[in-house]
Protein: Glycosyl transferase family 2
Organism: Fibrisoma limi BUZ 3
Amino acid sequence: MDHLFPKVHPLINSRYISFTDNCMATFTFLLAWVIYGYTAIITVYLSVYAIAGWLRRSRSATPSVAPTTLRRMAVLIPAYREDAVIIESARTNLRQQYPSDRFDVVVIADSLQPDTIATLRSLPIKVVPVSFDVSTKAKALNAALEQLPGSYDVAVILDADNHMASDFLSRINAAFEQGWRVVQGHRTAKNTNTPVAILDAVSEEINNHIFRKGHRALGLSSALIGSGMAFEYSLLKDLMPKVKAMGGFDKELEMRILKQKIGAEYLEDAYVYDEKVQSGAVFEKQRTRWIAAQFRYLKLNAKPGFKALLQGNFDYADKVFQTMLLPRILLLGVLMVGFLITLLVWGDFPVGWFVRVQLVLLMLTFYISVPSSLKSMVGLTELMKLPGLFIRYLRSVVNHRQARHTFIHTPHGTDSSAGS
C-alpha cells in the first residue's frame, strides 16, 4: 500500500487545499457583502438628509414684527482650565444687539488661575467658581444652575472658546417667540489656519447640513451639538441633574428631551463661532471622547430606541440609530479601501460596483453639504491629511475606553502643535 501513497496523497492534498481556498473565498465574499451592506445603509441615510437639506430653503428666525416678549437669558459658559481664551470670549459675548439688562453672561470658572478670575470679575458678567475631584461639563452646569436665580426664561450654553454673533440672542428670542423650547444655533468655524482646522470646519458644516438642516427639512428634530444651543430655562433645570455623563453630556440631554417628544429647531442664520482643532493630536483626543460617548449612548438607548420606533417616537428612534453610524472619515476610509480592493480582486463582480456606487454617492453627499467658501479651501495639502486622520480615528476607537472615567479636555487658544 505504501507504494500507492505518493500517488494518492497529492490528489487528497490538492482537494483539501481547493476546498479550503473555496471556503475562504466564500467567507471573504460574504464578509464583504456584510461590511458594504452596512456602509450602504449609512451612505443612503446621509444622502437622503443631505439632499433634503439642499432642497430646503433656509427659514429665518428674525420676526417680521417686534417680539412681544424679550426673554431673560443666562448665557452659561463652562470654562475648565481655559485661561487662554475665556477673557476674550466673555468680552466678545457681551456685545449683543439684545438689551443688556435682559441677559447675563455666566462664566463657570473651573480650575482657572486667580488672575483670570480677577479679570473676569472686573467685567459686567457673573462668575461662578467651582471645583471638583473629576471635572465635567455636566457637573459645572449643574453647579451653576443650583446657584443662579430661577428668574431666567432661557439658558444658552456655549463652550469657552465660542463667540456669539451680535444678533444671536435676538434670533434665539425670536425662535422661542414661535413656541420652540429647544433651539440649536449654527456653530461654524472661527479659524481655518491649518489643514486640520479646515477639515474640521468641513466636518462641522456637513453635520450642520445633514443632522440639522436636513432633518428639519423632513420634519424631524435638529441634532444638538454641545454648544450654541438654547433651552427653556425650567426644562434645562429639571433635566440637567439627571445627566451624569463623563463626556457627551449634550447627547444624554438630547436623548432625555426626545424621550419626552420635545423637538429642537435649527437656526441656520444664528451663528456661533467655534475654534476648530488645529492638529492631528488634538483631533485624536477630541474624537476619542466623542467615540466613547457614542458607544455609551448606543448601549444605553438601543432597546428603548427600538420600542420608541414601534410607539411612533421617530425623533428618538432616529437619534438612537445615529449612534450606530460609522463616523464619516471611517466610512470614507472603508469605502476607499474597498474601492482599491475591488479593482485588484473582484473586478467587475457585483460587490465591486456596489462599493463604487456608494463611494460616488458619498462624495456627492459631502459636496452638496459643504458651503462654497469652504470648498475653495480644500486642496491637495488638506486631502493628503485624510489618511493620517483616518488612522488617528481608528486609534481613537481602540482607545475610547480611557474616556469612560476621565474627562478628556480639548485645549483651546494654542497652535503649538498645529503642524502635527
About this structure: The chain has two domains: 39-54+291-403, 73-283. The chain is about 55% helix and 10% strand. Confidence is low (pLDDT under 50) at residues 1-9, 415-420. Strands lie at 73-80, 103-110, 126-130, 154-157, 163-164, 182-189, 229-232, 265-274.
